[in-house]
Design brief:
Layout: H1 5-23, E1 34-41, E2 50-53, E3 56-63, E4 66-72, E5 80-88, E6 91-99, E7 106-109, H2 121-138, E8 158-159, E9 166-169, E10 172-173, E11 180-183, E12 189-191, E13 196-204, E14 208-214, E15 219-229, E16 236-237, E17 242-246, E18 257-263, E19 266-268
Parallel strand pairs: 7-9
Antiparallel strand pairs: 1-4, 2-3, 2-5, 3-4, 5-6, 8-11, 9-10, 11-18, 12-17, 13-14, 13-16, 14-15, 15-17, 15-18, 18-19
Bound molecules: zinc ion.
Length: 277
């Protein structure tokens, strides 16, 4: 290799490496997973295309000269062909992508105290109102150019209940587990998984003290059952910054972090943002 070409080639390799490391989570086009849908080359379409899945805007990023839609697939999506609506300067088009079946593990739990399964009318009213507020937060959208999807673990600890686990209490199926539980002692610092802004801070019936962080482009992270919260709405966070301390507030059988990741309104498997190719 000639001496003059070498630095150029190294620079090209470095940039290519940067984009593939920084840009994309692990693809898994299943319910609760992430579909990476190619939308054409940057050369053909210099302006980023805009994409929607249903009525939710979808994150579109550049990867090695191509536009890619990074689509969160809701857990209750039936397998089959799905369609994105894509708009660009030339007009609107539809882009299909497949979603495959995934059967998540099942866990049967026998509880002697059925009051932990059945809510009082007051608790039920509160919980339902909170679920609506949380649904609205999950649909939050902010366009950004610096979304970092290579997440750091928010806490070190044993991975307890995984995402998607189908829990059945006394023979009654519950909603599947929409996050990843990390077993940590009370008071363990909980760290922002990536840079972002605090979207909301609240104390919920089920989730307890909770922080929502907005990473831009419809990518959010949610940290639940905290004992103490150290941030407030609107704060800008850097990756690894402490949000609060782990606890067992809300409906928790013991101290642990319940960590959820939301993409275009869908709860997706947080582990897809930790495992890299
Ligand atoms: Zn959990």
């Amino acid at each position: 290799m000639s001496g003059s070409l070498r630095p150029v080639l190294l620079a090209v390799l470095w940039v290519a490496g940067m984009t593939s490391v920084l840009a994309l989570p692990l693809a898994s086009s299943v319910p609760g997973g992430i579909a990476l849908v190619p939308l054409g080359t940057v050369l053909d379409t210099p302006d980023p295309p805009r994409a929607w899945f249903g009525d939710q805007p979808v994150w579109v990023a550049q990867d090695n000269g191509h536009w890619v839609a990074i689509v969160g697939v809701p857990l209750d999506t039936p397998a089959g062909t799905k369609t994105l609506r894509v708009t660009e300067h030339t007009g609107e088009r539809s882009v299909d992508f497949p979603v495959s079946v995934k059967r998540y593990p099942e866990q049967h739990v026998r509880l002697k105290d059925s009051s932990k399964v059945t809510l009082s009318p007051d608790d039920e009213k509160r919980a339902l109102a909170e679920i609506e507020r949380i649904q609205a937060l999950k649909r939050h959208w902010r366009m950004a150019t610096d979304t970092d999807s290579s997440f750091a673990r928010p806490a070190d600890g044993r991975l307890a209940s995984r995402f998607g686990l189908r829990r059945i209490f006394n023979g009654e199926p519950r909603a599947p587990h929409s996050g990843l539980d990390i077993a940590v002692p009370l008071g363990t610092p909980i760290l922002a998984t990536a840079a972002g802004r605090v979207l909301a801070v609240d104390d919920y019936f089920f989730n307890g003290k909770t922080v929502f962080v907005d990473h831009g482009n419809g990518l959010l992270s949610m940290y639940c059952h905290l004992d103490r919260i150290d941030v407030k709405e609107g704060d800008t966070l850097r990756k690894g910054q402490r949000l609060g301390l782990a606890g067992a507030t809300g409906r928790a059988s013991g101290p642990h972090l319940h960590w959820s990741v939301v993409l275009n309104g869908a709860m997706v498997d947080p582990e897809l943002f930790l495992k890299r190719k």
